[in-house]
């Protein structure tokens, strides 16, 4: 995979055939839960790599309290360190995209032979209908939802889950997800991780450890 500086994928792309999971988020801050999700996705979905896509600014989150992009990217690099198949990147900023649907379109153009899978926690599926052009996400790439307490039940009853219910795969079909023609998605019942960026920020604000 072509890279540009500190292991990041190149915004100019390449033509290698790889199965790549895309884990987007603010990473404010990055924590062990993000690494846990990425490693689980590598294992359960048979991926070659997972990219931690550090968003310049999530349109649904306030600017206040958001750490600078450079600091969040450094945090994501720290949790990816030591694993050759995890890459932290701020490629969205270099592509000039703000919304996930646009990012997926840009990546498909620049990496035409890659098989991308969008990864997200159940909390994001629960509110996915608030995202810009959210249906386009399901139609652009296969999607893997990873369980996250206490959102799993709410997520599976959400507008997005119901809209694409007939395209949901069984758990045992997860290994072949990257090769599926979208829309195709799977809900992975994985071991839950207790880390929470919200809780970490709250502890930092209160001065506790």
Structure write-up:
- The chain is of the alpha/beta class and 209 residues long.
- It has a single domain (19-206), classed as Rossmann fold.
- It is 35% helix and 15% strand.
- It contains nine helices and six strands, in the order βαβαβααβααβααβα.
- It has helices at residues 32-45, 69-80, 91-95, 100-110, 122-126, 134-140, 152-156, 159-163, 197-206, and strands spanning 19-25, 49-54, 86-89, 115-121, 143-146, 185-188.
- The chain has a six-stranded parallel beta sheet with strand order 3-2-1-4-5-6.
- α2 links the parallel β2 (49-54) and β3.
- α4 (100-110) runs parallel beside α6 (134-140).
- The longest helix is centred in the N-terminal third of the chain and has 14 residues, at 32-45.
- The protein starts with 18 loop residues before the first strand and ends with a helix.
Short description:
The chain is of the alpha/beta class and 209 residues long. Helices cover 35% and strands 15% of the residues.
How would a crystallographer describe the biggest sheet?
Answer: 6 strands, parallel
Helix content: 25-40%
Oligomer: single chain
CATH architecture: 3-Layer(aba) Sandwich
Supply Rg. 16 Å
Low-pLDDT residue intervals, each spanning 5 or more residues? 197-205
State the CATH topology.
Rossmann fold
Query: Class, according to the CATH hierarchy?
Result: Alpha Beta
In the CATH hierarchy, what is the superfamily?
HUPs
Q: How many helices in DSSP terms?
A: 9
What is the structural class? alpha/beta
Number of discrete domains: 1
Sum up the structure in keywords:
single chain, Rossmann fold, 6-stranded parallel sheet, 209 residues, alpha/beta, 6 strands
